[in-house]
Amino acid sequence: MIESLSLLGAGGHSARGVDFTALDIRTTGLRPGHVVELAAVRIRPDGSIAGELSTLVDPGPGVSPGPAVVHGLTRGDLDGAPSFGAALGSLLNFCRGSVVVAHDLRFVTAFLDHEVSRIGARVPVLPGVGTSDAARTAVQLPNYRLATVAHAFGIPARPGQSALSGARTVAQLVSTLFGRHGFTFATPPVLPALPQFAVGPLRPRPDVPVAEPGWMAEAVERVVAGRNTDAYLDLLAGVVADQHLSADEVSALAALAAEAGWPEDRVRTTHQRFVHALQEIAERDGVVTAEEARGLRHVATALGVTGVDPQPTAGGKPMRVLVLGTSVAADQLRARVLAEGVQLAKKLTASVTHLVADPSVPADEPRLARAAELGAAVLDVRAAPVALGFEPPPLRAVATTPDRSMRVLGGRVLMGVGLLLMFLIVIGMFGGTPLAGGIFIAALGVGALLGGWWITDPAPR
Predict the structure, then answer these.
(1) Both 244 and 353 in a single domain?
(2) pLDDT tens digits along 256-308
(3) Buried b (16+ CB within 10 A) or exposed e, 309-318
(4) CA distance readout (Å), 231 to 36, 281, 409
(5) Is residue 50 part of a domain?
(6) 32 lies in the same domain as 149
(7) DSSP E strands: which ranges in 353-436?
(8) Res 128 pLDDT > 60
(9) Domain region containing 276
(10) Nearest to 222 by CA among 345, 350, 113
(11) Are strands 2-4 and 126-130 parallel, antiparallel or unpaired?
(12) Mind spelling out the 3-state secondary structure of 136-201?
């Protein structure tokens, strides 16, 4: 149903004039099965939103909705919703004349293909883009979950349980990638001529605001994960976001892993690495709060991970960085903060220790003055890597200021005095100057020559 397009940096075919339709789905599991919710957001070339579409999808009588602990949907929510076949026409009409985009394009395509094949529909191939793959070429991050990438790119919209919240985040992300990051197409996208499909009533999920993430949800953004573990990491992150794991949630995770074909030892190893990574992140800044210690012990116990017993530390303030700006440099620094295992703040609070601004931030931005009032260090984006301890200070450059010019002049004068003294002692020796006096004057001359050379020598010390 969707064909992935190759992307380039500058130099390819521009996306100017191209509409994108961001897709997200909620499913019955990790392995292609049934879609239980789909959503799409149409975004214009100027970054404005042209429209939204979302609906719950009934997978069929008696079919389990899958992990309610992940997507929040129960069997009762899906009863009376349109089937996938009934919703497909509305989705295709919405995508007409646009490039489809999803964060994990392979995952979305696999499920849509499975559903289309199941109902025997014939659907033209749509051009598509995966924002996860594109983000990997733009910035270096510990993992490329949608929430992590959105945070690194300074996108305020956060994906929640609903497919629509995810599609909104993907829409802003693709606009950022093709906008300020300058992505282009390797070949011009070919948009198929789609007929007008028949549509039926849709059943969108009520729009619920996404809750503020707790410390563990933010810590997950700093957990290093490989390309093939992001899907399960997403599940773990969503379940532990509230720092609590019930027995039902653990059972649901085990069922999902088993359905995806994961053996028990792989699940156990994944849980161990995940929990130990969270503990390392909590302890990396030297400050472990009582809340962090309590949450880590609870999650470790629930997942059956041993050897996790973090001890709260008294006093201290962990480094917490807020990066303001809409430039590539700001995105790269936000990604660097996460990659270094440092807390990346979403807004200015008293816990922020450093505020970094790029040139797009006006000088009268109220948060700059407020940060200083709160005792946070206010940094320029170019100086931040050194100030935050991510890079060593640069070697002292050779001075080129007026002070350097005066040093050179003084050194040359001193060398001239030394040469003059040496010339005079030679003349004096022929004129009968006492040996002791000659040696003294010669020493002064040599000292003046060496001192002048040392002052004018440009080599850094």
Answers:
(1) no
(2) 888 888 888 988 988 998 899 999 998 887 888 888 899 999 999 999 999 89
(3) ebeebeeeeb
(4) 17, 21, 67
(5) yes
(6) yes
(7) 354-357, 377-380
(8) yes
(9) 215-302
(10) 345
(11) parallel
(12) HHHCCCCCCCHHHHHHHCCCCCCCCCCHHHHHHHHHHHHHHHHCCCCCEECCCCCCCCCCCCCCCC
Question: How far apart are alpha carbons 189 and 191 in whole angstroms?
Answer: 6
Instruction: Catalogue the E-assigned strands of 288-445.
Output: 320-324, 343-344, 354-357, 377-380
Which tokens sit at 107? 């995952």
d(CA 181, CA 34): 35
Q: Which residues pair with 20 in a beta bridge?
A: 43, 99
Q: What integer is the mean pLDDT of 195-203?
A: 92
Let me know: does 59 contact 65? Beta carbons within 8 Å: yes
Is there a domain that residue 207 lies in? no
Instruction: Kindly report the CATH number assigned to the domain that includes residue 378.
Output: 3.40.50.10190
Q: Residue 297, Cα to own-chain centre: how many angstroms? A: 27
Domain boundary among 387, 418, 445: 387
Task: Provide the domain count of the chain.
Answer: 4
Distances (CA, A) of 132 to 148, 303, 449: 10, 28, 64
Integer Cα distance of 204 and 134 in angstroms: 29
> Which secondary-structure segment (H or E) carries 98?
strand 98-102
Give domain status of residue 262, yes or no.
Answer: yes
pTM (predicted TM-score): 0.84
19 and 103 housed in the same domain: yes
The domain that holds 33 is classified in CATH as 3.30.420.10
Does any domain span residue 369? Answer: yes
62 shares its domain with 145? yes
Q: What is the pLDDT of residues 381-427, one digit of tens each?
A: 999 999 999 999 987 655 455 556 666 667 667 667 666 766 666 67
Q: For 6-36, what is each residue's pLDDT tens digit?
A: 999 888 999 999 999 999 999 998 888 999 9
